[in-house]
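Summary of Year 1 activities. Much of the first year was spent building the evaluation harness for sequence design. The harness presents a backbone, in tokenized form, and records the residue chosen at every position. We chose the following record to illustrate the format because it has been used consistently in internal testing since the harness was completed.
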């Protein structure tokens, strides 16, 4: 048995690697094909009996080939005076001569000729760019005579590193369609959950057990608390707003589960403030606003969390006010695309929060301050504005996944202290912004973000 491994820095030349070692490694990450983000992607044009290919870059078995100028292939010598012929034109990688370039393969002239095909072997690999039909005695190539093979994955195709053969533009378009579909499905799911909650409310009225408390918490909203810890709110419109200690539910440790009926549109300020044992909540599809400190826990020692362990924010929500979920024990959250108002400290101090996705157009100030476990943050390309100090003390966050391009990321309006209020406004943890066409990497020595484009 033998083992292979790499790559390591040499000490006294005790580690030696060849070009083949690196190409073997790269070929496991980058598939064969044309890189569609580089210049003209070898686009073919015709004039008389010539085919000119635009600039481009290709990867073949871990080797790269770059053409920085237009390359013209003259097909005149392949024209037969009495018979038709096809020629194939492609990029080759010849490991025996250690070269890459563009070759032409001529087929046999015939009344009904066959199209020639490049044959790959253990020495040479081809990417077919185009096939040209040369009519008998012709003096020019027509548009109908040229077959562009670049998009044909069996002959060439486009490459995008470990994502396989695909166009970046197509990938982004499909991503947008998928996100739109997911949003629509989420709306349907919210509506179904609300219907289920309505049915559950009716069942609970019959089976929930002994009633501990009843009352009113909105002009048209009433509540029932059962001895099993379930709190039911039924009605329409908004609940009342409260101050810190006058909420009808303030510091009620008997509340374990909260269910709100369809028709409720707003949760008032401090409605469930410091309900430390209320771990779950079912929010209706009709909900559009979550008030100041609605689910917050009382400010205590750093790292303290209580209350909610999970929450699904309905798609219809447009406002999440300040401190709404502060110090709760949620582990993941998605802020939906319709949110337009995002108050300060909305998720601050959620020390167990590990995963967050922001689909809306802005992120509030101090949004994730002291979310010390946050390691997976995804930001939609819809996001256009960042708030100050939104990632202060997010010490587990090394990389942000951004669902747009580097150019779109740079266009986001960001205050200088969007990451932190510390020295140079850098939080000392975040190192990378992963975008769809590359990434930005933090240079701590010069206090700048450097762009690295794919390809």
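For this record, the design step produced the sequence shown next.
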């Amino acid at each position: 048995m033998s083992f292979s491994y790499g790559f390591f820095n040499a000490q006294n030349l005790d580690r030696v690697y060849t070009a083949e070692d690196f190409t073997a490694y790269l070929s496991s990450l980058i598939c064969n094909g044309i890189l569609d983000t580089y210049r003209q992607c070898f686009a073919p044009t015709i004039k008389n009996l010539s085919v000119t290919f635009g600039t481009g870059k290709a990867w073949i078995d871990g080797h790269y080939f770059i053409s920085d100028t237009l390359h013209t292939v003259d097909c005149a010598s392949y024209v037969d005076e009495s018979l038709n012929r096809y020629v194939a034109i492609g990029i080759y990688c010849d490991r025996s001569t250690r070269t890459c370039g563009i070759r032409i393969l001529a087929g046999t002239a015939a009344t009904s000729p066959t199209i020639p095909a490049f044959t790959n072997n253990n020495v040479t690999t081809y990417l077919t760019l185009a096939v040209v039909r040369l009519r008998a005695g012709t003096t020019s190539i027509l548009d109908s005579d040229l077959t562009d093979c670049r998009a044909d994955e069996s002959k060439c195709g486009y490459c995008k590193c470990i994502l396989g053969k695909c166009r970046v533009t197509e990938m982004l378009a499909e991503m947008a369609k998928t996100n739109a579909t997911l949003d629509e499905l989420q709306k349907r799911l919210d509506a179904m959950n609300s219907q289920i909650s309505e049915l559950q409310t009716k069942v609970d009225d019959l089976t929930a057990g002994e009633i501990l408390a009843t009352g009113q918490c909105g002009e048209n909203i009433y509540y029932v608390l059962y001895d099993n810890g379930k709190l039911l709110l039924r009605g329409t419109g908004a609940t009342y707003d409260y101050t810190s200690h006058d909420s009808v539910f303030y510091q009620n440790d008997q509340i374990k589960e909260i269910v709100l009926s369809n028709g409720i549109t707003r949760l008032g300020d401090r409605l469930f403030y410091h309900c430390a044992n209320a771990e779950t909540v079912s929010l209706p599809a009709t909900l559009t606003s979550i008030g100041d400190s609605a689910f917050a826990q009382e400010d205590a020692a750093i790292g303290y969390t209580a209350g909610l362990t999970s929450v699904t924010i309905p798609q219809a929500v447009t406002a999440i006010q300040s401190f709404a979920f502060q110090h709760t024990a949620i582990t993941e959250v998605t802020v939906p695309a319709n949110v337009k108002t995002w108050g300060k400290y909305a998720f601050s101090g959620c020390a167990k929060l590990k995963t967050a996705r922001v689909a809306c157009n802005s992120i509030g100030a101090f949004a994730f301050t002291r979310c010390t476990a946050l390691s997976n943050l995804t930001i939609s390309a819809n996001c256009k504005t960042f708030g100050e100090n939104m990632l202060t003390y997010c010490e587990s966050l090394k990389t942000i996944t951004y669902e747009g391009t580097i150019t779109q990321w740079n266009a986001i309006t960001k205050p200088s202290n969007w990451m932190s209020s510390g020295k140079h406004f850098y939080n000392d943890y975040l190192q990378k912004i992963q975008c769809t066409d590359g990434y930005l990497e933090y240079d701590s020595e010069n206090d700048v973000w450097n762009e690295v484009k794919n390809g």
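The longest helix spans residues 168-207. Quantitative recovery figures across the full test set are reported in Table 2.
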